[in-house]
Every structure is written in C-alpha cells, then in structure tokens.
Amino acid sequence: MTDPTTAWAVAAVVAAALALNGLTVLAYALDKRAARRGRRRVSERTLLTLGLAGGWPGALVAQRRLRHKTRKQSFQRSFRLSVVLNLAVVAVVVLVVLSPLG
Q1: Per-residue pLDDT tens for 15-72?
Q2: This prediction's pTM
Q3: 20: which residues sit within 8 A by CB, 6+ positions away?
Q4: How many domains does the chain have?
C-alpha cells in the first residue's frame, strides 16, 4: 500500500505541473494575440523561462497548435536547449535522488 504522504506529494507535483503547463500555454496564446494586434508582447525570456521551469510540454503544444514561435530559429534553438536541460535535471532526480540507493 502506498504511503498517504507520498500519494499527496505525487498529487501535488502533478497538479503543479498541470498548472505550470496551462500557464505556459496561456502565455503563448497571449503573445500570439498581441503579435496579431501589434501590441506589447510576452518576452521570449518569459516564454523560455516557463518552458525551462517545466512547462515545455505546454510550450510545445502551444507552438504547434497556435503556429507560434516555430519559424524563429534563434528562439527554437534556445527552446530545444531548455528542453534538453529540463530532461537532464529530471533524469538526475530520478536516477540519483529517487533511486533506492540514493
């Protein structure tokens, strides 16, 4: 049987990830809307930071669904690097911190 504390911790992490990814999709949508209307944009730094913080799946979905930030190569290079860094951190946490021997 799973420890209730562990179950709550997992639920909290999942909820936080969903919220962060939702926020990331919203930021991309607001930036796309602002771009279309010639208004003040969401900074690329903000979009990349949201992705690096764990919102990269939402960013990827938003990029594809909204067709936004897909053609700017400098942004895509930075985005891909942020995904690789994020996955590397997750791998370290899973393999080192959460391993039975860790």
Answers
A1: 999 999 999 999 999 999 999 999 999 999 999 999 999 999 999 999 999 999 999 9
A2: 0.87
A3: 50, 53, 54, 55, 58
A4: 1
Cα separation, 39 vs 76, in Å, equals: 22
Contact criterion met (CB below 8 Å) for 52 and 85: yes
Q: What is the domain range of residue 71?
A: 4-97
| Band of pLDDT at residue 97, cut at 50, 70 and 90 | confident
Distance in angstroms (rounded) separating the CA atoms of residues 8 and 74: 40
For residue 56, what are its two tokens? Answer: 């990269």
In a domain, 102, yes or no: no
∠ CA 38-39-42, rounded to 5°? 120
If you search the block for the tokens 């919220």, which residue do you land on?
Answer: 19
